[in-house]
Amino acid sequence: MGTVNRVEKKFLSTAGNLVPLLVVLGFLYPISQTTRRIVLDKELRMKEAMLIMGLWQSVHYLAWFIITTLQSLLVSLACAILLKSSYLRNSNFGVIFFLFFFFTLTSFVLAGLIASFFSKSRISSIVAPLIYFLFSVPLFAFGSVSGSVVSGLCILSPTAFAKGLMLLFNHELSTGFTYEDINSPFDQPNMILVLILLVVDLFLYTVLMLYFDAVIPNEWGTPRHPLFCILEPLRRFQKRKREWSSDEDGRNPLGVYETQTCEDSTRSAVRICGLTKVFKRDGEEFFAVNHLHLDLVEDEISVLLGHNGAGKSTTMNMMTGMLRPDGGDCYIYGHSIRKQLNRARQEIGFCPQHNILWPNLSCYEHLEYFSGIKGLTGSLQRKCIDAMLTGVDLQDKRQCLSSSLSGGQKRKLSLAIAFVGNSRLVFLDEPTAGMDVAARRHTWELLRRMSAGRTILLSTHFMDEADLLGDRIMIMSRGSLQCAGSSVFLKSNLGVGYNITLSVTRVASSQAIWNLIRSHIPPAELLSCNAGEITYRLPMDFVKNFPPLLRDIEGLGEKYGVQSYTLSATTLEEVFLKIAHGDGVGAIPAVETQPTFLKGDYLEMDEKGSKPVELEEDFSTTQKDTPRLVAHQPNRSRSNSGIETMSQLQTIWEAEVIKDEFGLMSSQLKASLMKRLLYASRDRRTQFIQIVFPVVMLTFVLLLQLVEFFSYPSLLLSSNMYGERVLIDLAACKKAINVSIPFAKSTSFGIHAIADTGDLYKYLIDQQETNSLNRYTSISCNDFFYRDRKILLYNGSALHSSALSLVGYYGSVLYAQLRGASTAYQEDIFLTRNFPMVQTAREHATSEAIKTVLMGILAIIPFSFIPSTFVSFVVRERECKACHLQKVSGMRFSIYWLSNYIFDFLCYLITAILAILIMLAFNRKEYISSEKIGATFVLLLMYGLSCIAMSYAVSFLFKQHASAQNVMLLVNFIAGFFMVLLVVILEMFESTKTAAKGLQWTFRIFPQLLHWGGHFEIVIIKGERGCAG
After folding, report:
1. In this structure, are 935 and 867 located in the same domain?
2. Per 3-state DSSP, what percentage of the chain is helix, strand, and coil (rounded to 5)?
3. 393: in domain
4. Residues 676 and 900 sit within 8 Å (Cβ to Cβ)
5. Of 731 and 887, more confident
6. Domain of 426: which CATH number?
7. Which of 337, 296, 308, 335 has the alpha carbon at shortest distance from 320?
8. For residues 197 and 905, what is the distance between their CA atoms, to the nearest angstrom?
């Protein structure tokens, strides 16, 4: 039978399986960066901020899928055009395109799935490529396995993609891949199954991504129950669990609350009705927010204060919908957060404590995006953005990227985002943090202006800011509202009194002044008595006695040595401390110890009152403590700093330091090494990359080497293997063959009178019109030229057809002999298997060498990640100015780098020793035989030394340690895998061996290539000796 001519494609036939590996791993860096960007959005709290500002969760995911689909289309189109114009010229463009499209789309979803497990972008950018690499290598590592195993491995999308590429390249060796080959029975699995499995992977990864993104806890947001997809639908048909009543009042009954006027009630924009949240701690329930009742009035700024854990954040999270309340409700302009959350969020603007900004977007683009979420479009949107930029004094920065703004300018932009889009309820969390004094004043004025027509809830730690801006101030403690009202109301009802500060001369008598104060206000308390200044606290109940006291001080001031006085009311900070850090309303915290400069005489306070105590020294500037405060101190010898007045200071300043050069260098080296040891012992991420990951991967690779890569299973020969109906033509064989009982289910006989097998060509043409079944074999029993012989014909375009013709003939003869014994069909009565030929010694040695080299490439890849840990630490020290601090403190330049080099090498030495021990455990003679173990160990050591030096050299190119680590990971992976593989492929062909040698010399600047070269030289000795044997 004639065959079409074919041109041997040496490159594909030789490196056909390596090219798919290159293509698959070419997506490694994009997957890493996609994962990093998704996690960065979570790390910067972008997603939560957008949801709070009114973005729907479904819209967020839909927009992400649309963007990834468009990206997949562009990438797939470019890759398909590139391959179609180069390696796959005979293959169908549509098949190539859809294979790339389904894979790239699945890869984006895989990146999202990986990202759902991380909250730090730096860690995700390291782990994501490792996971993708592990998903990519099984098909190449396991070698020849059954089709069912490959189909199972295709649950990993990179493996499915690699299998599809192998099919394309294998078919390209013949006539190319066409639509007819998409369901070929000879490919196991075939292309249609690969595409279906990629679609299944896409659906599976999407479901897992959405699920894990919902249930895995993050810093922001509330995770859902692991069985939420089952429990939440069931709750609609079940009786509701116990819900805390919204009628209960969780306010402190001893608290003070300013009654709102009828006008305030009509202007109420936010009504909190019994809002409750209960958490469990050690199996016991406690109220994080205890039946909170509160109204926020429009046109006012309400300030929420409280210590850490008081319930402020929980309250805000429930009001913004980030946390579901266990009881009660919150109505935002009439919209319930429990039933109409999306409508309520359309009214919310949010300025978090940390700036939530995209580094690569300008100020205008930020406001344009968030105003778009609110529904602003067209000219009105532009006018609002311009007005907002002018309001926050950023009109000259409208086109500047947020990454170029100062800290104060970023806070202004975050503030503008909260107000843009006509948000009527604005949450401000530390809005002026990081601003200078002038910017804070400007922001206060802006907030005052912007409060018109809006409701603002502000949380701050600046008491002056709360005092100035707060129309209504609320203080929470232990989940309950303790007090609420204006600043004046709280001070008048919760104040601890007034403070009077007297400026005195050197001859003033503190006892005389004290008697004067007590004569008018007996409960007065002495707070401090410093050089030239005395401060007393006056209770608020004695305000009526203030005028005569002040008249006496003014009239008798010269007599008592009083130059001037200052009378100040209770500050908001004192009220806050009294509520937040006391035992409740009315509790006054103890006064802290204050240093005092005394002169003349002072008061010693005892249980009975006070009495003057004469001092030997006159007025001086010696630092001492007031006697009343000393009584509260357990240790009189210690000051506020914890340093003894004389002995410890003398120890510090009189300590002798090492003077000689060698001793100082030794001390610096020891201290620097100890610093690195303490840091490394707590850095789990570096320990994993530097020690755990290389050791685990090396063990995995050595386990793979136990698998027989070049052993193929036997093949059952039957016409059923073609997966379609087969016709066997018979000529004059009726007596010899039982045609009524075929020997395979898919086989049928056709009896035809072919006198001469030479007329077969004409016969097949004639039969094409009347019987179009495929023909792989034919049997002629009475040929015109060979009447005493049986002639077997076979289709040369079908695999195993020659052997199958023999199977068909002998099986038919056997069935003819059994014609009288049984007419039942028994398929297993005649089985024929084709076993692969046993390898020769040379073939076995060659296959072992190839396997070892391929496994060697996989083994050195984890070692390519190690240098990223070397560069990360030194760049981190420069980034946080620790390196500068060490140098200005006297650290020598040489000692700094020597200590880092020694420590990094010792850490790497642990990995190298563990690698040798693993090789010994697996008894890998090609590495640890008596003549090779020394070379292997030296190769590992020299690789570590060179990588450390290279990492230190390139560290000066970076300013951020995260960028340094990511770039080094990429460069080292390219050098340790792609460059090595490129050299291996080029060395396979005589025409490119010269180029391979040249590239080897060029790439030797990278230690990874030298590491692989040394590994190859060590292994190839065994291969050459095996071949020679």
Report:
1. yes
2. 55, 15, 30
3. no
4. yes
5. 887
6. 3.40.50.300
7. 337
8. 46
Q: 180 and 35 in one domain?
A: yes
Strands 595-597 and 533-538: unpaired
DSSP state of 472: E
- Structural domains in the chain (count): 5
Residues 6 or more apart from 745 whose CB is under 8 A from it?
A: 720, 827
- On whether both 19 and 132 belong to a single domain, the answer is yes
pLDDT at 741 over 60: no
1019 and 901 both lie in a single domain: yes
Kindly state the helix (H) or strand (E) to which residue 485 belongs, with its residue range.
strand 480-485
Last residue of a domain, one of 792, 808, 834: 834
pLDDT on residue 965: 82
d(CA 907, CA 884): 25
CB neighbours (10 Å) of residue 834?
13
Contact 778, 728 (CB under 8 A): yes
- Report long-range pairs for 641-649 (Cβ below 8 Å, ≥24 apart): none
**Which of 366, 379, 449, 373 is CA-nearest to residue 410?**
366
Q: Which domain holds residue 196?
A: 3-215
Q: Which of 834, 856, 887 is the last residue of a domain?
A: 834
Residues 190, 288 within the same domain: no
Residue 221 lies inside a defined structural domain of this protein: no
Neighbours of 606 (CB within 10 A): 11
| Type of residue found at 178 | T
SS3 174: coil
Q: Report CA dihedral (224, 230, 236, 242) to the nearest 10 degrees.
A: -60
856 pLDDT more than 70:
no
The answer on 852 and 829 residing in a single domain is no
8: number of Cβ within 10 Å: 7
- Please give the pLDDT value at position 891: 86
Let me know whether 426 and 556 are in one domain: no
The DSSP output letter for 974 is I
Report the SS3 class of residue 783. Answer: coil
Looking at residues 950-971, what average pLDDT do you find? 86
> Which residue from 23, 29, 12 is spatially nearest to 140, judged by alpha carbons?
23
d(CA 982, CA 1022): 23
Q: Which tokens sit at 807? A: 């199977």
**Both 823 and 889 in a single domain?**
no
Domain presence at residue 564: yes
Confirm whether 89 is domain-assigned. yes
